[in-house]
Design brief:
Elements lengths: L4 E7 L7 H12 L4 E5 L20 H11 L3 E5 L9 H10 L12 E6 L7 H13 L10 E3 L15 H20 L1
């Protein structure tokens, strides 16, 4: 029997009806056999404070969040781009997650995707992530890159993703994430 790979998905948008959350849902449907993608919330993770970064003082939402990450075989981060960078709430959650010995992120493969209503996609935000992934020794799915611009035109009135080429690229990206995990 093949092992089921556990992927934790993090969404950079906190909006209830976020296009990036919809892309995570699409990824769940398109994921390869042997892979389960679970969206993990960090909505209640407080601002990072090193005074609270101890086993005794760590806020419960942080401990729960880090435990969910620790149980993952890999990660899927799907995020919009804010001011050419990573959205602040996601960056804060990753700051908490990067701490510890070892960090629950350290060395685990990651796929990075993003969608925006603008014309430029999320290439700047994705580029900012590269130094973080290097620091955490996280192998990144390099191809195909998923930068979805004008995402509002890619969903129909009932919420179905209509970009067939985009679906193929997402499937290939997830397959490559699976291969990265299995190579470890």
């Amino acid at each position: 029997m093949e092992t089921q790979l556990k992927i934790v998905a993090l969404c950079g948008s906190l909006r209830k009806d976020s296009y990036n959350k919809k892309l995570i849902q699409l990824s769940q449907m398109l994921s390869p056999e042997q892979m389960t993608i679970t969206l993990v919330s960090y909505d209640d993770v407080p601002y990072y404070n090193q005074d609270l970064d101890t086993n005794e003082a760590m806020p419960k939402p942080v401990a729960v969040f880090k435990q969910a990450l620790a149980e993952a075989d890999g990660f899927l981060i799907v995020s919009p781009e804010f001011n050419y960078s990573i959205p602040g709430a996601l960056k804060n959650a990753l700051d908490w997650a990067s701490r510890g010995n070892p960090s629950p992120l350290f060395g685990k493969p990651v796929s990075l995707m993003g969608a925006t209503v603008g014309m430029l996609g999320t290439s700047q935000m994705q580029n900012v992530f590269l130094s973080f992934f290097r620091l955490m020794n996280m192998p990144l799915v390099l191809q195909p890159q998923i930068f979805i611009s004008q995402v509002q035109t890619k969903f129909d009135e009932v919420g179905n993703f209509t970009d067939e080429k985009g679906k193929q690229l997402i499937q290939q990206n997830l397959e490559n994430l699976k291969l990265l995990i299995l190579k470890r």
